[in-house]
């Protein structure tokens, strides 16, 4: 089991670290620790043996190699006959060590989730930046089989750190210009191999958080005639990140380099640090399609979920033909100044388990050593 020392937990809570401008991530820290401590917790790596034995790991590795090669051929950087394959045995041996996470209730949906988005693969809608072809494999960690009947929702900020469909003081310059577009937001169904595919951007940075993409996994939803979904349940809410050195190269390109907001590095983001614990890796595996970032990117992530889990994230807005409109009774309304749960980084009231963890932390009156411990 991986735990936060009481000293570190206390130190994190004392910082009132911001999750988005105006809010803090204290509750997310506690929620994440409760997840790590749960006796029935299973990760993607827990399923390694079954996924390798079934041939799924090898099949997905070969599919992803072929997809990257296809993108390179289409962009003029390779010939159809030039596909070079990596030894699949090596891939099987190292499976689950990178770009694999279990996005149990460990992260907040944040104040900028807009529900009612369209089912579509290309979610760029004219936004410019590091174009990324993103493959997300969803795995049921209770059965160790791919989830073939889910919808993956994806959203993130644009290259200059602004979320579309929302107007808020902490969202870029707070202008109304982003409310009328649904760029960089959408849903995709998982296929027979558990894969959902998007065309999006590497997200830009904004005050208080490291660059990240948000995701929500829907189960049992019904596709509507207007190409949206309704009903069903949400099992998990999570966030994906980008390796810092590679991200620095992205940030040096246009239009990322015009972003005037203060950047938070991965090492300074408590939710990122917690996401790296417990044998999980929420960092996307990214490959260049061409010779430079501007030529496009291919990214992958394996996500472990428990389809029977039920979470209740809260949208701030609903997407309509007129753009983003306020969701009734949203606890995020008025963010970051007057929202109902601005003080709770996760946007939800504290749970009984949160209170128990707070009590455990407060029992240590003299925290001295700030470190992670493996037990």
Q: What does this entry look like structurally?
A:
- The protein is of the alpha+beta class and 375 residues long.
- It has a single domain (43-327), classed as Sandwich (Protocatechuate 3,4-Dioxygenase, subunit A), CATH 2.60.130.10.
- It is 21% helix and 22% strand.
- It has helices at residues 6-15, 26-37, 48-53, 56-74, 88-94, 244-251, 270-275, 352-362, and strands spanning 2-4, 100-102, 114-115, 131-140, 145-146, 150-156, 185-189, 195-201, 212-219, 222-223, 229-230, 233-241, 285-288, 297-305, 317-320, 323-326, 372-374.
- Strand 13 and strand 14 (297-305) form a beta hairpin.
- Helix 2 (26-37) packs across helix 8 (352-362) and helix 4 crosses helix 5.
- The longest helix is centred in the N-terminal third of the chain and has 19 residues, at 56-74.
- The protein is globular and about 55 Å long.
- The N and C termini lie close together (5 Å).
- Residues 1-18, 32-41 and 344-375 have low confidence and may be disordered.
- Residues 1-19 form the signal peptide.
- Residues 349-375 are annotated as: Disordered.
- This is Aromatic compound dioxygenase.
At the fourth level of CATH, the homologous superfamily is Aromatic compound dioxygenase
Number of helices: 8
What is the alpha-carbon Rg in Å? 20 Å
Helix/strand/pairing category: alpha+beta
Q: Roughly what percent helix? A: 10-25%
User: What is the overall pLDDT average?
Assistant: 82
CATH class: Mainly Beta
């Amino acid at each position: 089991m991986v735990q936060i020392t009481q000293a570190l937990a206390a130190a994190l809570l004392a910082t009132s670290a911001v999750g988005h401008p105006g809010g803090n991530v204290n509750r997310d820290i506690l929620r994440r620790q409760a997840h790590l401590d749960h006796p029935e917790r299973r990760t993607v790596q827990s399923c390694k043996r079954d996924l390798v034995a079934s041939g799924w790991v090898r099949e997905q590795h070969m599919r992803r190699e072929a997809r990257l090669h296809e993108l390179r051929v289409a962009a003029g950087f390779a010939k159809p006959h030039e596909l070079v394959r990596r030894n699949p045995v090596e891939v099987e041996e190292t499976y689950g060590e990178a770009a694999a996470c279990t996005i149990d209730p460990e992260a907040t949906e944040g104040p900028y989730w807009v529900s009612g988005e369209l089912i579509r693969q290309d979610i760029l809608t004219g936004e410019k930046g590091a174009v990324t072809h993103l493959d997300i494999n969803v795995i049921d960690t209770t059965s160790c089989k791919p989830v073939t009947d889910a919808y993956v929702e994806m959203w993130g900020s644009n290259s200059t750190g602004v979320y579309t469909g929302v107007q808020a003081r902490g969202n870029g310059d707070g202008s109304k210009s982003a409310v009328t577009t649904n760029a960089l937001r959408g849903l995709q169904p998982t296929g027979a191999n558990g894969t959902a595919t998007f065309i999006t951007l590497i997200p830009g940075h904004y005050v208080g958080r490291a660059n990240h993409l948000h995701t929500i996994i829907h189960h049992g939803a019904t596709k509507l005639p207007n190409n949206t979904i309704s009903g069903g349940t949400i099992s998990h809410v999570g966030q994906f990140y980008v390796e810092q050195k590679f991200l620095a190269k992205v940030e040096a390109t246009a239009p990322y380099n015009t972003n005037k907001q203060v950047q938070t590095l991965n090492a300074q983001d408590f939710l990122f640090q917690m996401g790296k614990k417990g044998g999980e890796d929420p960092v996307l595996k990214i490959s260049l399609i061409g010779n430079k970032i501007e030529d496009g990117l291919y990214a992958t992530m394996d996500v472990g979920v428990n389809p029977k889990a039920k979470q209740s994230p809260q949208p701030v807005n609903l997407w309509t033909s007129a753009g983003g409109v306020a969701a009734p009774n949203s606890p995020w309304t008025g963010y970051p100044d007057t929202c109902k749960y601005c003080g709770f980084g996760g946007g939800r009231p504290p749970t009984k388990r949160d209170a128990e963890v707070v009590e455990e932390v407060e029992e240590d009156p003299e925290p001295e050593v700030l470190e992670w411990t493996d037990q």
